[in-house]
Amino acid sequence: MIVILTGAGLSAESGLGTFSDSGGLWSRFDLNEVATPQGFARDPAQVHDFYNLRRDTCRKASPNAAHRALARLKQALGDDLILVTQNVDDLLERAGAQQVIHMHGSLMGALCNKCDSRWPAPHRMRPDDLCPDCGARATRPDVVWFGEMPRAMEPVTHAIARADLFVAIGTSGTVYPAAGFVDLALEAGAKTLELNLEPSQTHDRFYRSLSGLATQTVPAFVEGLLTSRDHRI
Length: 233
Ligand code: APR
What we know:
Blueprint: E1 2-6, H1 9-12, H2 25-28, H3 31-34, H4 37-42, H5 44-60, H6 65-77, E2 81-85, H7 91-94, E3 101-102, E4 105-112, E5 118-120, E6 139-143, H8 153-161, E7 165-169, H9 181-187, E8 191-196, E9 208-211, H10 214-228
Parallel strand pairs: 1-2, 1-7, 2-3, 7-8, 8-9
Antiparallel strand pairs: 4-5, 4-6
Helix pairs in contact: 6-10
């Protein structure tokens, strides 16, 4: 079993911004204002604007060679590979990957804050939008904000406990629980590999930490894995 965790660095070369890097989204936007339930309660229009803009950017972006390589790996390994992403974009799916676990939700979805219904996000989400199921004026982006519970943590931790190999790609290792997955993998006796532009905050926990652009390191990693077929890193 292989578990791959991806972060914003995977989509950086598709033109989607990362978060904690210098010049990243959190240096230009106050995350307390645009990525918390409290910020949404204070100013829903501002939060919708932030996600409408990101959704727009995402729709115009295309999957890159790293997304395509991971999709190819998923197609080859099926249930032996669990793909977990912190990204709210749909670039892995558009590259052909199926069953991607979006632990921080999806930019392309709308969620009713009252009845938990979900539906595809409209082009522009507005505070006045009504839930198609219960009619409440409680529409929000279907993303996980700071202070909320990430999705699917039970199947993910279960998969890591059975993993032979855990790979983190394009993530800074600063946001939990994802930043702690490498420790769970080590406890499970898995090998651990990091592919990132630069060593992450948790790089010392990885058996190997390779620096480079995702569009170069990920296709090379996938090629090597599919050629050796024994999960050796
Ligand atoms: N290839 C590989 N790695 C890259 C590339 C690239 N082309 N560009 C940037 N990176 C690396 C950066 O060096 C950085 O370590 O990707 C990482 C991105 O880190 P963050 O911006 O912190 O993104 P991520 O780790 O996904 O953040 C996790 O935190 O802010 C929240 O909800 C947000 O899902 C996000 C979560």
